[in-house]
Amino acid sequence: MALTLAELLALPALTAADPQLVSGDPKRDVRWVHTSEIFDIATLLKGGEALLTSGLGLVAASDARLRTYARSLIEIDVGALLFEVGRTFSEIPTIIADELRDSRVALVRLDGVVPFIDITESAHRLILDAESLTLRASDQATRRLMDVLVKGGGVSAVLSALDELTGAPAAFIDAEGREVAASGPVPANARELERPVEVFGERRGVIRSAAAVTADHRVVIDRGAAAIALELARSGSTMPTRRYAHEQLLHSVLHDDLNPADLESRAGALGVVVDRRTELVAGLCAPGAGRSLDDAYVQLVDAVPRAFGPAVIGRVGQSIAMIATIAASLDQTALRSKLAAATAGPASLFRYVTVGRRAADWAGASASLQEAIDGAVFAPLLGSSEPLLAEDTALFRLLREIEKSGALDDFITRQLGPVLDADARRGSDLLRTLAELFRAGGSRSAAAQALGVRRQTLYDRLRRIEELLGATVVSDPLRAVTVNVAILGWSMVTRTAQSTPPESDRLRRRGQPPASSSR
To answer: Cystine design at 19: which of 9, 274, 505, 510 (Cβ 3.0–4.6 Å)?
Structure first.
C-alpha cells in the first residue's frame, strides 16, 4: 500500500524540515521512500517513489545535466523529489524546478539539515503496516475468486464476487471496447480502477470497477483481472503461444524455480538442446530510444538462431533476453562477431547488448543470465555500441564486490581526492580530462577531441593534475593503471561516466563546491 505525498509530509520527522510543496499533487501516491545522491538514480528506480536528496550529486553539473536529471525522474515516473536546501544548495536549481513543474513528479523543498534515515524509517513502517492489511484483503479476494473458478461460475460469477468484495459493480470490456458482462452499471469514465486482462501475453480486454479507489480495492481488482484471465484460458478461448512458452522458461531460469533436469526437459521441448559439443550463453538486449520490444524481438528471433542455433528468446522486464546454444569450440572473438551480426539492424535498434559467462549445461544458465542482466548496469559506463561479453564487465563486478566491503571509497579517496576537491571547488573538469586521456589510450589529441578543447588546454589541465596527483600519474604504467581503476570505481559509484562527484560521505566530505560552474 502506498502513502499519499500529503501523508508523507505530515510525518513528524519531516515537519521539522518545514516541507513546502513547490509543485505537484499532494494526493500523489508514494509507494516507497529512497535517499540518494547518485546522478543517474532514475535507472535504479521503478516509479512511484519519493526521492530524498541534498543535491550533492548535482554539484557543478551543467544546465544540460540538470535538465537530464529532472527528465530522467519524469520518465521513470518518480512520485516526488524532496530536495533539501541549505547544506549543498541554497535554493533548488531553477532548471529542475522548471522541468518538474508541469509533470507528475511533485517537487518539495526541505529547509535545513534533514534526518533522512528517520524519515525513511517512519515512512516505511507505515507503508509496511498498511501493506499487511492489504495482504489480508488480497488473501480474502484470492480465496473467494478461486472458489468461484473451481465451481465453474465463469466471468459473470467472477464479476459478482468482485461486487461483493468491493461493494460496487464491476464489468469486463473486451479488446474491441464492448461490455461482455457486468454485475451492474459501471460508468464508462470509471478508469481509476481499471486493469488489463491478458491471456498468454495477449490483451483480451479490461476489468473496470465503480468502487471507491483504495489500496484494498486495487488489490481486489488486480486479483479479479487474473481470475478472468484464468477463466478465459480454461475455457479454451486461446492457446499458449511459442513466445509465451519461451518467456515462461526464461522466467524459470532467472528465478531459479526449476531444477536443471526440468529446465533441460522444457528447453528440449522447445528444440533447445545442449550436448558435449555445445554450450549455453545468455544475453540481454535493450531496445534503443524509440524502438519497441517487439522490434527487438522480431530481429532476435530471426537472427540469433541463424547465427548460433536453437535459442530461447523472450521478454524479461524492459529488455529481450536470450539463451543460445553455441559451439563449445567457438572462441570469444568469434562469439563477439556473431553477436554483433545477430544484433545488427536499423540504426539504434539496440541500446546495449550484454552477455553472461558460458554454461556447460542448464545448471549454469541462471548464473549466465543474471550476469548478462548485471552487465546491463555497467553498459552505460563503457559507452560501447558493441556487444559486451562477461570479461568486458568483469572489473566492474569486482569493484562492486569491493564496494560492498566499504573499501572502495577509501581507495578512490586516496587515489583521486585532490582532483575531486579541485573539481568541486572550481568546476575544473580535471577528473573527466584524466578519464578521457586513459580512454584514448594516452593519446593527447584524441583526448582533446573527445573533451572538445584545444590541445593546449589539455596540456594545462594535465600539468595541474600532475601537481595534484604526482608527476608519474600518466607516465608510470602501474600508477596509471591504479588511478584508472579508481576512476572506473568512481564512475560505477556514481552510476555515470561523466564528471559527477560521488555520493559517498567519505568522498563528499570536503568543502562545499559551487552550485554551478562553466566548463
So the answer is: 9
Read off the pLDDT of residues 381-439 as tens digits, 9 standing for 90 and up: 777 778 889 888 888 888 888 888 889 888 998 999 999 998 888 888 899 899 888 88
Q: How many domains does the structure of the chain reveal?
A: 4
> CA distances (Å), 135 to each of 130, 138, 161, 223, 343, in order?
9, 5, 18, 12, 43
Domain that holds residue 485: 406-508
Collect all residues with Cβ–Cβ distance below 8 Å to 369 and sequence separation of at least 6: 250, 253, 254, 282, 284, 321, 323, 356
- Residue 398: inside a domain: no
Q: Are 200 and 239 in contact (CB under 8 A)?
A: yes
Write out pLDDT tens, residues 320-344.
999 999 999 999 999 989 988 888 8
Distances in Å between the Cα of 481 and the Cα atoms of 310, 412, 442 are 41, 13, 12
Tell me which residue of 373, 381, 382 sits closest to 355, measured CA to CA.
Answer: 373
The pTM (predicted TM-score) of the whole model is 0.48
Q: Do 100 and 166 fall into the same domain?
A: no
Encode burial over 184-218: b for 16+ CB neighbours within 10 A, e otherwise: eebeeebeebebebebbeeebbbbbbbbeeebbbb
Residue at which a domain ends, from 114, 130, 164 = 114
Domain end residue (candidates: 234, 259, 282): 234
516, part of any domain: no
Q: Same domain for 425 and 373?
A: no
Together in a domain, 347 and 436: no
Same domain, residue pair 279 and 378: yes
Q: What is the DSSP letter of 511?
A: P
